[in-house]
């Protein structure tokens, strides 16, 4: 099915960004078997990377069960089933006890709840001196940096990704794949409809690639 092929393709190009997940992780001190909560983990490209980078236990939460199923499949395939678990839950209703995690990781999901609200609500979930790592859009970065201390964290470090990297390393190759599939399925109206949906997303970024730049924020509970 075209939808499955596109999901697979998106994950494949999403993996181009694992180098930034690694860079952010390397900004943390060495932690023994950390408990990590990956919020809005989706199909788990960063989650699997975290399993490779650490010897810890990782819980991925998301509201989309089919994405979690895909993460469970990859977890099994990579041999991480004993350390990577998934829980279907909304990031508006996270129900773990206080001080459950050494690290909270959130790539591409904090915008759903808002930067400031997330920092405040997630603080209780971290153990003392625990870390929060966020990958978010670059817009209003200076406002975000200002909010960090009043939300109960200190900034360890932050870095922005190259300006149009989402275009060059994700959406541009995605567009090429969409075109290949469009030619292959030219007589399949359902497939073309699906591909149009993905092309619309590509077009949005293509119009102004620099607007879609993003940054990592590495914070420590203070
Ligand atoms: C842009 S994706 C990021 C996925 C993954 N973290 C990554 O970086 O590849 C955002 C994810 O947030 C999830 N999401 C959306 N609303 C949510 C909610 N209310 N609670 C939990 N997850 C949510 C979506 O299902 C999706 O998997």
Task: List the topology elements.
Blueprint: H1 2-14, H2 18-25, E1 35-39, H3 45-53, E2 57-62, H4 65-78, E3 84-88, E4 101-107, H5 110-113, H6 115-123, E5 126-137, H7 141-150, E6 153-160, H8 165-184, H9 189-207, E7 214-221
Parallel strand pairs: 1-2, 1-4, 2-3, 4-5
Antiparallel strand pairs: 5-7, 6-7
Helix pairs in contact: 1-8, 2-3, 8-9
Bound molecules: S-adenosylmethionine.
Residues 14, 40-42, 45-46, 62-64, 67, 90-92, 107-109, 112 line the site of S-adenosylmethionine.
Derived from helix and strand composition plus strand pairing, the structural class reads alpha/beta
Average pLDDT rating = 97
- Low-confidence segments, given as residue ranges, are none
Major β-sheet strand ordering: 3-2-1-4-5-7-6
Determine the strand fraction and express it as a percent band.
Answer: 15-25%
User: Whole-number radius of gyration?
Assistant: 18 Å
What's the assembly state of these chains? Answer: single chain
* Helical percentage: 40-55%
Please give the count of helices. 9
Please give the largest β-sheet.
Answer: 7 strands, mixed
Run of helices and strands: HHEHEHEEHHEHEHHE
Descriptive notes:
- There is one protein chain.
- This protein has 222 residues and is α/β, with parallel strands linked by helices.
- It is built from 9 helices and 7 strands.
- It has helices at residues 2-14, 18-25, 45-53, 65-78, 110-113, 115-123, 141-150, 165-184, 189-207; strands spanning 35-39, 57-62, 84-88, 101-107, 126-137, 153-160, 214-221.
- Strand 1 (35-39), helix 3 (45-53) and strand 2 (57-62) form a beta-alpha-beta unit.
- The site of S-adenosylmethionine has 17 residues, from helix 3.
């Amino acid at each position: 099915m075209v939808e499955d092929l596109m999901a697979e393709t998106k994950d494949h190009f999403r993996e181009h960004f694992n180098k930034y997940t690694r860079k952010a992780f390397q900004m943390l001190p060495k932690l023994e078997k950390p408990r990590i909560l990956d919020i809005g983990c989706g199909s788990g490209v960063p989650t699997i990377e975290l399993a490779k980078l650490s010897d810890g236990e990782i819980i991925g939460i998301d509201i989309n069960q089919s994405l979690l199923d895909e993460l469970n499949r990859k977890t099994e395939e990579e041999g991480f089933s004993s350390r990577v678990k998934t829980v279907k839950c909304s990031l508006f209703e996270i129900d773990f006890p206080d001080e459950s995690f050494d690290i909270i990781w959130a790539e591409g999901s904090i915008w759903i709840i808002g930067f400031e609200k997330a920092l405040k609500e997630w603080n209780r979930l971290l153990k003392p001196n625990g870390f929060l790592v966020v990958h978010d859009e670059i817009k209003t970065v200076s406002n975000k940096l200002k909010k960090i201390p009043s939300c109960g964290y200190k900034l360890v470090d932050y870095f922005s990704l190259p300006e149009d990297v989402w275009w060059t390393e994700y959406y541009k190759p995605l567009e090429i794949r969409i075109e290949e599939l469009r030619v292959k399925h030219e007589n399949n109206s359902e497939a073309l409809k699906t591909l149009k949906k993905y092309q619309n997303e590509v077009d949005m970024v293509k119009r102004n690639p620099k607007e879609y730049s993003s940054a990592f924020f590495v914070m420590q509970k203070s």
